[in-house]
Amino acid sequence: MNIQALLSEKVSQAMIAVGAPADCEAQVRQSAKVQFGDYQANGIMAVAKKLGQQPRQLAEQVLQHLDLNGIASKVEIAGPGFINIFLDRQWLSQQVDAAVSDERLGVARQPAQTIVIDYSAPNVAKEMHVGHVRSTIIGDASARTLEFLGHNVIRANHVGDWGTQFGMLIAFLEKQQNEQHGDIALADLENFYREAKKTYDEDEEFAVRARNYVVKLQGGDEYCLAMWKKLVDITMTQNQLVYNRLNVTLTRDDVMGESLYNAMLPGIVADLKAKGLAVESEGATVVFLDEYKNKEGEPMGVIIQKKDGGYLYTTTDIACAKYRYETLHADRVLYYIDSRQHQHLMQAWTIVRKAGYVPEAIPLEHHMFGMMLGKDGRPFKTRSGGTIKLSDLLDEAVERATKLVGEKNPDMPADELKALANTVGIGAVKYADLSKSRTTDYIFDWDNMLAFEGNTAPYMQYAYTRVLSVFRKAGIELTGVTGAVNITEDREAALAARLLQFEETILQVARDGMPHVMCAYLYDLAGLFSGFYEHCPILTAEDEQTRQSRLKLALLTAKTLKQGLDTLGIETVERM
Ligand code: ARG
User: How many angstroms is it from 403 CA to the middle of ligand 1?
Assistant: First the structure.
């Protein structure tokens, strides 16, 4: 159910009937205050201005043509020409009935688009670091949300699997294999990289071999390719464990690393030259962009091929955008990459558009996010200043959650407690990130994220179990609620209206890629449920009809919480 769309349609029809242009916007929004009703239409002022009329008079006329029979119980003009709409309780009751018996909770499938989502994108032979956590978690919530709406989502894990560092990495892997006579686990990728670099800097013979391997790898040498593949495999096997732990939907099949685009790069450089976009400059191939100025105020030069023939990160991203449109047939491409790469993407896409590789009608969207900071407001690091290993972070989350839920459930069997601690601990890390607007930096704080109060995973997971416990207490299965909804109380009406705004919320998340909007909605919903439960007795309702009606509201609340958390990738439990 999309109430906003329904009311927008009705109000704009009425506006058109009194002379507004056919493309006028009703601007129907959820009202900010109860006294303004459930929804408010704000579009009349702009139209009145255009038509040279008094807004209030125009609003009177619109009201005469506005047919909300059966939907609204009251419609009134407010302020300079707003229309306040109060939803009819009978209508709300029917909508709740319809939503609760629909497996999609009344959320319509959208006309399916192919949407490519670029997220996670760790680098080979390096530990996944906190910067990749946000991309992974927020990107995955976005993928789940769009998939729920019926889109064809292509998860693109743009792994950093190419570059000159691979000569050094291959040489070092070889050295380790020789010394250890066999396969190595690369359990500690960060150390592997660091030691490889150290050896490269200190050992000239090693460095020569490493440089030779880069050339051979680029030339397609079989041995080097096999070693390269080994590095990619080891890294992605390890990352896959992290994805699984995080309940992130990425799989090995989603890996579309930088190397995928290698074969396209020479053609792109030649094409950009032929189109007059790229020129030779001091031996390199450069695209000068008027849109960006360098320090001297001249058009900025973006290098796409170095003097030595090597290609750059930008060249790959140009090819990658082209590929996503041409080969994957994307209707929309979302990139979950930290905000420091914004200029890089804008430059690559400016070139992509100029070259006509991706038509303007296909949106390329940078869904950027800020940094993850420690409690002191500085970049999130270990005490000794090193990068925090994601697996260590998750271990700590589960450890802390074990203590937390153990205290609350002293009698819970050990297996159940273990599973619960995992759900709560991992959920807390994810939810903490998801619940904050992604555009700003975010402070990682254990105490906040594991609190049972406030907009946190434990609170939301607990809220869900509380609704379920109502059914347990009533001795009734979720499937055993039979009667019709009949809303009579204010708190019932408020809860029902909010429940029916689930679709509007999902659509907003889908449009902006901002999962915190869903978190805020679910948090609000849980609060409304508490108020309803307190003031509208369910188990001791005055009659059976009322009891059934309220159980149904509780049922839709449970289903909405679960489905909402599911679109975020947050798991729920039956009891905690
Ligand atoms: N591997 C890169 C990094 O760690 C992120 C890649 C993001 N995706 C892209 N298409 N550039 O910073």
Answer: 36
The answer to whether the CB of 473 falls within 8 A of the CB of 539 is: yes
Give the pLDDT confidence of 186-203 residue by residue, as tens digits: 566 778 888 999 999 999
- What distance in angstroms lies between residue 358's CA and the mean position of ligand 1's atoms? 20
Spatial contact of 246 and 136, defined as CB atoms under 8 Å apart: yes
Nearest Cα residue to 358 out of 387, 318, 400:
318
From the CA of 485, how far away is ligand 1's center (Å)? 50
Domains of the chain: 3-87 (3.30.1360.70), 114-160+258-373 (3.40.50.620), 164-248 (no CATH), 390-568 (1.10.730.10)
pLDDT, tens digit, for every residue of 78-106? 998 999 999 999 999 999 999 999 999 99
What is the spatial distance between Cα 48 and Cα 418, in angstroms, rounded to a whole number? 62
Looking from the CA of 396 toward its CB, the CA atoms found within 13 Å total: 14
This prediction's pTM: 0.94
Q: Does the interface ipTM go beyond 0.90? A: yes
Which pLDDT tens digit goes with each residue over 364-399? 999 999 888 888 888 887 777 777 778 888 999 999
Q: Which atom of ligand 1 is nearest to the CA of 159?
A: 1
Identify the residues whose C-beta falls under 6 Å from ligand 1: 118, 121, 123, 158, 160, 317, 320, 335, 337
Q: Which residues have C-beta within 8 Å of that of residue 29, sequence separation ≥ 6?
A: 4, 39, 40, 42
C-alpha to C-alpha distance for 542 and 555, rounded to whole angstroms = 19
